[in-house]
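Feature request, filed as a ticket because there's no other form

It would be nice if the structure record came with a short human-readable summary line next to the tokens. Right now we just get the raw output. Example of a typical job, pasted below so the devs can see what we mean:
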Amino acid sequence: MQNQFSRTQLLLGRPAINTLHGSRVAVFGVGGVGGYVVEVLARSGVGAIDVVDDDRVCLTNVNRQIVATLSTVGQFKVDVAEQRIRDINPRCHVRKHQTFYLPEQADRFDFASYDYVVDCIDTVTAKLDIIRRCHALGVPVLSCMGAAYKLDATQFVVTDIKNTINDPLARVIRKKLRQEGIRKLKVVYSPEVPVESIEQPEISCRFHCICPDKDMRKCTERHTIPSSNAWVPAAAGLIAGGEVVKDLVRLAGTMRIRPEDEADNPAAVQAEASARRYLDDYQARRRAEVAAARQVQPED
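Raw output as currently delivered:
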């Protein structure tokens, strides 16, 4: 039976889709890059997605963030992301974490339960903590480096952090990880030399912050306001999301298994069982939602 994942199944095979249905991925940061990562995961059929972000949609996000439209300005990004995921795949179990990730909040997250973690945040301390925890637990992690101050989306690549150049964020992370003995980290980054912003105080958030009320961080508290565009963060996020999907399937050993080989392939059998658990979980959640809705209905 055809469904929203049929075209992907034609490319990757049914066991690969089953693998994705039974996977749980956490995305830290749902902005310009992270929003497109979530888009790929949702459209690829990942069964459970954790979205972590504390920001509300700001008017200045509309130029590059898929969760940002004029109608979503002021809403929390995790709420918009959840609705978008459910519009694409209602069966996906979305866990929202409306928080700015810091090491002291790590106990709120069960890193061992994730099949993959995607780091799309721009705070060095938080990035390092996420990477450390995934490394210690053996959880696959992909870290996204800088996407601001860039113009050429075609230069983005997936590589190890030791190969990065012309990226100030990657340089800091690389140095810190080397000091801690962590030698490998898969990243999405561009070797393009960053361009300088054209300073214009009359439109700069540095002087005219219009962030929605109650946000933890104000633009006026930042040292610099990154300049950006619609295509570079999107390309980085799409590349990152695709890499996660391919890694999940490759790690499971279910890439491009043909229908006639499924019954005798242990990886395919395991993936089918995982997908069935995903479906059972969805059906249980739906029953709970229906029961809860009946309880709050007014009496006749």
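Something like this underneath would help us a lot:
Residues 11-252 form a domain with the Rossmann fold fold (CATH 3.40.50.720).
The radius of gyration is 20 Å.
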